[in-house]
Amino acid sequence: MRHSRKDSAGDMPVSIPPKTKVQVHTSDDDIETGAFPVVRRKPPKSLNANATRVRIITSVLVALMCALLGFGYAVQVHNNRSSYETLSEEELVRLLDETSTQVDKLEERKSQLNQQLTSIKSAADKQKEAARVAQQNEQNSGILSGRLPAQGRGVTITISETSDRIDASTMFNLIEELRNAGAEVISFGDVRVVTSTYFLDTKSGLQCDGRKMAAPYTIKAIGDPDALQNAIQIAGGVGSRIKVQYHASISVEQSDSVKIDQVRRGQDYQYAKTVE
């Protein structure tokens, strides 16, 4: 569209060309259509991809844990095997003898129980026979539990300590060696040794069941004297370790009459009750 205006000089109309719109294109515009650029959305991450990644990580962790467990088991088996491989022939024979002794004791106890059952069944007065068997078992139980004194064949062990103090674990191992060798009754100093007996290292010295012990230590054990002495004095046994590691002296004396007067008071049970 053209516009006109009059010139002041001659009032002649002057033509003014129309304004022209200049369209500026950017690199993102569509020049052909004049449309605005389309912003493309990024495709969403697939849930399946995330699940796959989680499964892979879980599988790797499980495989790693299995490998660690397998390695630990292999090391444990190797250590157990090595511990037996390093034992001398005498030590292996001693272990075999101790195992045989325990088996014999269990078989003997089984035979005693069978005999008691047979005697009760065949007795004319079954109630009287059952009372007699119960009294006999009560005596045996009293000796084993430490409530009654005992005497019999066995050994007396004396340990003289030097400046190197013998620790609690070594003393506990010595008691266990006597038990494995068939000791039926044991005393450590003035303490009657039972299943709950423990040893403890303190600043003031060795304690047994809360009582302070001082060298020389005296241990009495009732059982087969030869087996008990062999358990202490065998090469590589606990007696040898006490001599070498702690520079202590240890002596074992056999006797046909070892008397153990130390007794334990019966435990008062707060929760456990007999089955009626």
TrEMBL record:
Residues 89-130 form a coiled coil. The chain crosses the membrane at residues 54-75. It comes from the Bacteria. Residues 1-27 are annotated as: Disordered. The keyword Membrane applies. InterPro entries: DUF881 (IPR010273). Keywords: Coiled coil, Membrane, Transmembrane, Transmembrane helix. Belongs to the UPF0749 family. This is DUF881 domain-containing protein. It comes from Bifidobacterium coryneforme.
